[in-house]
Design brief:
This protein has one domain: Pectate Lyase C-like, CATH 2.160.20.10. It has one helix and 33 strands. Helix 1 links the parallel strand 1 and strand 2. By secondary structure, it is mainly beta. The radius of gyration is 20 Å and the shape is elongated. The strands form three sheets. It has a 20-stranded parallel β-sheet that branches. Strands 4-7-9-11-14-17-20-23-26-29-32 form an eleven-stranded parallel β-sheet. Strands 31-33 form a two-stranded parallel sheet.
């Protein structure tokens, strides 16, 4: 069932009345509303980013679940929530200026966020949590305190993060205790860290781990913002990070192939000292980095180092990579 919605008309009413399988078509213009998708098979589509714009409204849908680990008054632009919710598609719009996430999906199967601009949303840009078979493709995300695009505690399944551009966030892309993610052809620049894959178990959270992911053909550059320094600032909950292109922390069986990691320079304090980092998270309830494959990557023009490995290199496969300077300087699989 197709339902057109003009600016000033209620998107939520159209969603609730149309029910499962609805196709809600947002007309060009500014829609001031917070939306909750709670039925399967729904498509929410606009006329294109910058043409259809979703901004905060005065009301919040009754019963809409709040953003995980955030105060109750924090509001996201589009929320997809519920174990029975599947095959939802959100596409062709800008989501701007919400106090939570631009798009937030929780406990759903087969959520696709495509060609969405998530701009200046306070906490997250596009945030998929505890979902399976998630897709974030051809999106742009900037100006969020934590991740521009993120998978969090998403179990091993067929996840895809492809063709996105992230900038001006603490984490351009954050793969947090999620497995099976294919992160390909993304551009991450002007963040504190371009992309981080993190295995770290938190009290009260689901089982963690990052396994069987692919990070390929991405471009990580000019990531020099400072996160984790000011109590209410960028990346406030984490340690100081700046100038990092890509980090694998406690990951297992992650393949890093044909990435371009260049011209990343810290703008302040950072617990990581290179543009490409592989390290253990065992001290934080995670694990050692094991059985990762790092192949055919170009890493250059970064300060203070191109790469830094605090991992058992006998448990990694490193081959045909190029870099100017790193720690350890004689790591096999690297050439100048």
């Amino acid at each position: 069932m197709m339902r057109p919605v003009a600016p000033g008309e209620s998107i939520q009413r159209a969603l609730d009345e149309a029910g499962p399988g609805a196709r809600i078509v947002l007309a060009e213009g500014v829609h001031a509303e917070n939306v909750w998708i709670r039925h399967p098979g729904v498509t929410l589509t606009g006329a294109g980013p910058g043409r259809t714009v979703l901004v905060p409204g005065e009301g919040v849908p009754s019963g809409v679940p709040s953003l995980h680990d955030a105060p109750d008054d924090v509001v996201s632009g589009v929320t997809v929530y519920g174990e029975s919710v599947s095959d939802v598609r959100i596409q062709g719009l800008t989501v701007r200026g919400f106090t939570g996430a631009g798009v937030y999906a929780h406990s759903a199967d087969g959520v696709t966020v495509h060609d969405v601009t998530a701009e200046d949303n306070a906490v997250w840009g596009v945030y998929l949590r505890e979902c399976v078979n998630g897709r974030i493709t051809d999106c742009r995300a900037n100006g969020s305190q934590y991740g521009g695009a993120a998978f969090s505690f998403c179990p091993l399944s067929d996840h895809l993060l492809a063709g996105n551009e992230t900038h001006g966030n603490a984490f351009g892309v954050f793969i947090d205790n999620s497995s099976g993610v294919k992160a390909v052809r993304n551009t991450c620049h002007g963040n504190a860290i371009g992309m981080m894959l993190l295995n770290q178990v938190y009290e009260g959270e689901p089982e963690g781990g990052v396994t069987d992911c692919l990070v390929a053909a991405n471009d990580f550059y000019d990531n020099g913002l400072v996160a984790g320094v000011e109590p209410d600032g960028l990346g406030a909950a984490g340690p100081p990070i700046s100038g990092v292109g890509l980090a694998l922390i406690g990951t297992h069986r992650v393949s890093v192939v044909d990435n371009h990691i260049h011209d990343n320079h810290p703008g302040g304090e950072s617990v990581m000292g290179a543009a490409l980092v592989i390290s253990s998270s065992s001290g934080w309830g995670g694990d050692h980095a094991l059985d990762n494959h790092v192949l055919w990557n170009r890493v250059y023009g970064n300060t203070p180092l191109d790469y830094q490995f605090d991992a058992d290199l006998d448990r990694q496969t490193l081959a045909a990579n190029t870099a100017d300077k790193g720690d350890p300087p004689d790591a096999r699989g690297w050439r100048r």
